[in-house]
Amino acid sequence: MGQDVIVVGGGVMGCAAALRLAEAGLRIRILEARALGSGATGVNAGTLSLQIKRVSLMAYAVRGAELWAGMGERLGLDLHFRQPGGLNLAFTEPEAELLKRNMRERQDVGLPIRFLSQIEVGKLEPALSDKVLLASHCPLDGYASSSVVGRAFARKFKALGVAVNEWDEVTGLDRQKGEWRVEARSGRYTAPLVLIAAGAWNRALLQKVDVDLPIGWRVNQMSVSERTTPLLNGIVGHVSGLMSLKQAPNGTVIIGGGWQGIGSPGEPGRPMAENLANNLRFAAHALPALRSLRIVRSWYGYDSVSPDVMPMAGAVPGQDGLFTICCVRGGFTIGPCLGALVADAILGREPDLPLFDPGRFVKQPAVARTG
User: Among 3, 113, 191, 347, which one is least packed by beta carbons within 10 Å?
Assistant: First the structure.
């Protein structure tokens, strides 16, 4: 039996789209080069912070957080979703002014944010540095366990009868006689519709049909400490975006902030020692107790990015039946929302939030002038 839609890429965005399509009654096959959720989805810190999302994407982020709140029940597996609220910190007067400006913009679009003084921060998070000058607090900030997401989707897809090919890299893509042919290591698959949701690998896949979208990548690196006594009640970030902290239920502290490693999609990468040291130094400045803890592991993940730092989500220009989704900064939070919206477009429904046309990066042929 053939498929109605082939989804290439089994991260949170591809899986969210596949789930919506399957629940609408379509026959779906997912082709994933590794295991479901093992790419950017599975190696990010799992933070669902609304304060650090772009104002222009706030509606998508809020809906994404709402979807995460019910995702465990929907998939039938505990994703360790928690919503303890979060802080965004400022240590200097210029940082405090930037924090006020940024968060007032978010207040203006309805995000529930309040500002906390140094004393108030100390009462809420006693382990944080007393050098915090000002903080913003959002009760909607939370997190989920990114390492469980792939397994949860796999269980749900099995129950729905979705065909899932893991460890099955796509090697070819073309269109013949009104159908898409997708060549994978396990064989050839055909369907009238294809969704490319492979993140930083999207560019190489789309190039197979002579579509070259300017999809770049970031090599975000993170670290985790040994287990320790309770230090943090909620998630913690910095106004610069260069530091994020949260403590997992097992007592480990997860440290991130977008510091870059070295590598490119399709090649082995590695953390960058200097950036790693700076990330840990910054984190210990905010949470002094980290200075006495050992770092157990550091790792990295590829995150796709567009020139305007906005998503690409929707129909691929000039390619009937081909869709793409990638370049979503904060993709773990926003992914369930955008995946569902792209699925609606595939189903021929009008998405209730605007998509992000990949065609904005395709140069249109010049129109010849006469006269």
Answer: 347
User: Which residues, 6 or more positions from 241, have their beta carbon under 8 angstroms from its beta carbon?
Assistant: 52, 257, 258
Please enumerate in sequence order all residues whose Cβ is within 8 A of that of 248, keeping only pairs 6 or more positions apart, or say none: 145, 224, 254
Q: How far is Cα of residue 88 from the mean position of the Cα atoms in its chain?
A: 19
pLDDT digits (tens, 9 = 90+) for 113-141: 999 999 999 999 999 999 999 999 999 99
Q: Structure pTM?
A: 0.95
- What is the end-to-end Cα distance of the chain in Å, rounded? 57
Burial class (CB in 10 A: 0-12, 13-18, 19+), 273: exposed
Residue pLDDT, tens place only, 232-275: 999 999 999 999 999 999 999 999 999 999 999 988 888 899 99
The sign of the dihedral angle between the CA atoms of 140, 146, 150, 151 is negative
- In tens, the pLDDT along 184-242 reads 999 999 999 999 999 999 999 999 999 999 999 999 999 999 999 999 999 999 999 99
Residue burial 19-46, b: 16+ Cβ < 10 Å; e: rest:
bbbbeeebbbbbbbbeebbbbbbbbbbb
Query: At a CB cut-off of 8 Å and minimum separation 6, what does 148 contact?
Result: 77, 78, 79, 80
**CA-based angle 342:345:350, to the nearest 5?**
120
Burial class (CB in 10 A: 0-12, 13-18, 19+), 347: middle
Asked if residue 63 lies in contact with residue 353, where contact means CB atoms within 8 angstroms, the answer is: yes
Please choose, from the candidates 280, 328, 279, 283, the residue with its C-alpha nearest in 3D space to the C-alpha of residue 306. 328
Give the pLDDT score at 271: 85
- Containing H/E element for 313? strand 312-315
E strands, 16-118, where? 28-31, 47-48, 86-90, 114-117
